[in-house]
Write a structure and sequence with these properties.
The chain is an alpha/beta fold. It has a single domain, classed as Rossmann fold, CATH 3.40.50.2020. The protein has six helices and 14 strands. Strands 1-11-9-7-4-5-6 form a seven-stranded mixed beta sheet. The protein has a three-stranded parallel beta sheet with strand order 8-10-12. The mean pLDDT is 97. The structure holds 1-O-pyrophosphono-5-O-phosphono-alpha-D-ribofuranose and uracil (URA). 1-O-pyrophosphono-5-O-phosphono-alpha-D-ribofuranose binds next to strand 4, strand 5, strand 8, helix 4 and helix 6.
Length: 209
């Protein structure tokens, strides 16, 4: 699929299988999500631009590679996005963070916004939106709409699971935003859940069901 990268690294797939298992505890689910997020972060940042700077090693002067441009922004779609965010910040501790509060209305499946806070200079930064689930894509589209309204022009979307229907809708709404996911599952069920899926990501992370 154009603009979609499936991260099929064996460690990602192994951990994802444990997360899908309904017998996996809340504590293990959270730990696995954090571990997987390190591996996904590695992929989503693979093509960051590099420049060089002059450093002195103990032996000589060299022009050494370093990331170009302003610090990244990780934009977490609350609540479940925070499960990916924590691991990504372990890998890129200097990243800036945006929080986008959205929940899915259970009946309409529309995304309802309740919070937004982001760095003021989004136009100068790569923004990586993180949310474990891309189901109908209502939440992802709303999150990226909002970031673009606030100036973001260089955006990527990172999730753990995606439904084919969600990918279709998201890439139509935001064709300029590459999607990274660990799996494209079979479909959405009649309640808008990804199947086979892993259930409600927020509830499984925080033990709220
Ligand atoms: C989940 C998930 C996404 C959204 C995906 O959040 O984390 O944000 O659903 O569904 P969609 O693609 O159909 O919009 P939820 O609304 O359950 O909120 P939560 O993270 O607070 O549990
Ligand atoms: N949100 C979730 O947490 N899980 C799904 O399967 C769909 C939306």
């Amino acid at each position: 699929m154009n603009g979609v990268t499936v991260v099929d690294h064996p460690l990602v797939q192994h951990k994802l299988t444990i997360m899908r298992d309904k017998e996996t505890s809340t504590a293990s689910f959270r730990r696995l999500l954090r571990e997987i997020s390190l591996l996904l972060c590695y992929e989503v940042t693979r093509e960051l631009d590099l420049t060089t700077r002059t450093i002195e090693t103990p032996l000589m002067t060299m022009e050494a590679p370093t990331l170009e441009g302003k610090k990244l922004v990780f934009a977490s779609v609350l609540r479940a996005g925070n499960g990916l965010l924590d691991g990504m910040l372990d890998l890129v501790p200097a990243a800036r963070v945006a929080h986008i509060g959205l929940y899915r209305d259970h009946d309409t499946l529309e995304a309802v916004e309740y919070f937004f806070k982001a760095p003021g200079d989004l136009e100068d930064r790569l923004v990586i939106v993180v949310d474990p689930m891309l189901a109908t894509a209502n939440s992802a589209i709303a999150a990226v709409d909002k970031l673009k309204q606030r100036g973001a022009t260089n955006v990527r979307f990172l999730c753990l699971l995606a439904a084919p229907e969600g990918i279709e809708r998201f890439t139509s709404a935001h064709p300029d935003v590459p999607v990274f996911t660990a799996s494209i599952d079979e479909k959405l069920n009649e309640k808008g859940y990804i199947v086979p899926g892993l259930g409600d990501a927020g509830d499984r992370m925080y033990g709220t069901k």
